[in-house]
C-alpha cells in the first residue's frame, strides 16, 4: 500500500472503467469471527480475513487478553486458539481506537471472566460514541464500570444469566456483543430490548454467525465486504463502463441491498427516494454521486449514523454544499438537489473512511473534460480503517481503463 499524502487530488477517468476488483474481506464478519473463534473450543482459521486498522485493533486486544492469535497477511488468514469462554489474563489495558465493533464486542467479551479488571480507552471520536447502554446491561450482570463512556475501567464478575434489558437504538453492535457472549453465561441469558434496534441486518448477521460457530468450524471463510463493494458498484455510474466483482455476495451482509439501489440509478441515472435504515453504511456512496443524477435524491433512515465515526448526516450535508449542491437536512434524512459542481474543493473526511472513499468515487467524474483533478481528498489514509489499498486500487483501475 502506498503512503498517501495529507491531501490527495483525485485524477478523473477519461475512459469507461473496465476490469475486476477483488474486495477485501468484510470488517463486520472478520471482527465477529475473531470473537466467536476466541469463544469456541479448539483452533479456528479464518480465510479471506480483512487486515485493516479495525481488525488489527481486535487482534491486538485478544492477544493482550492472553489468547493465541497467529496472522498471515499474505495468505489473508488468522488462526485463533479458542478457550471456550475463558479469558486468560486477569488485568489488561485495551485501546479500541475508533473501532466500534472492537469497543462493544470486547466490553462484553471480558465480562466472562469472574474476577477481571480491564482498562478501556479509545481515541477522541470513540469517547463520544455510545457505550452507556451496554455498560448498564453488563452491570445488571454483576460488572462494575468506572464511567459511562470511554475511558473506563471495568471490573468483571462473570455473566450470571437471566434477563438483561438493553437499549440498542444507538448501535446494534451493543446487542450483537451480548448475543455472542450469551451462550457462555452461567445460566441462559435473554436480552430484552427497549426501543428500536440500530441496524437489524447486523444483528441477523451475528445470530447466523453464532449458529455457524456452534458447530466449531476448523476453517471459516470471510465474505467479501459488501459495504466496500458499494464504491465499485457506483464507479461505472460515474465513469461509464463495467466492473466485475468476483467475491461480491454472500448471505450474511445486509449491505447487499445497495446493489438494488445502484441498479435502479444505473438504469436511468435519475435521483430516487430510499430508506437506508437497513444498510446505512452505504448511504454516503449514493449521496456523494447524487450531484451527477437527474433530479433530487432523498436518503432517509440515517439518524443513527450521526453517532458513528462522525456525524455522517451533517458531514455529508457540509461537503455537498461546498460542492455547490442544494441540500435539505433533517434529523433522519438528506435531500440532495443537483446543481453544477464547484471545482477546486477540498473534501473534509472527519477521520471517517466512508467520506474518503465515497468522494473518491465522485472525483473520478471528468468534470473539466480534460482529465485534470478538480476534487481533493483530505486525510486519504483514514480509509485504512477498512480498506487500506482503496486509492491504489482506484488508480490501478484508471490506468487499466486507458
Describe the structure.
- By secondary structure, this protein is an alpha/beta fold.
- It has 2 domains: 7-24 and 224-401, Enolpyruvate transferase domain (UDP-n-acetylglucosamine1-carboxyvinyl-transferase, Chain), CATH 3.65.10.10; 27-221, UDP-n-acetylglucosamine1-carboxyvinyl-transferase, Chain (Alpha-beta prism).
- It is 33% helix and 18% strand.
- The strands form 5 sheets. The chain has a 4-stranded mixed beta sheet. The protein has a 4-stranded mixed beta sheet with strand order 5-6-8-7. A 4-stranded mixed beta sheet has the order 12-13-15-14, with helices on one face.
- Strand 5, helix 3 and strand 6 (117-121) form a beta-alpha-beta unit.
- Helix 1 packs parallel to helix 6, helix 2 (53-64) packs parallel to helix 3 and helix 7 (226-239) packs parallel to helix 11 (353-362).
- It starts with 6 loop residues before the first strand and ends with a helix.
- The mean pLDDT is 96.
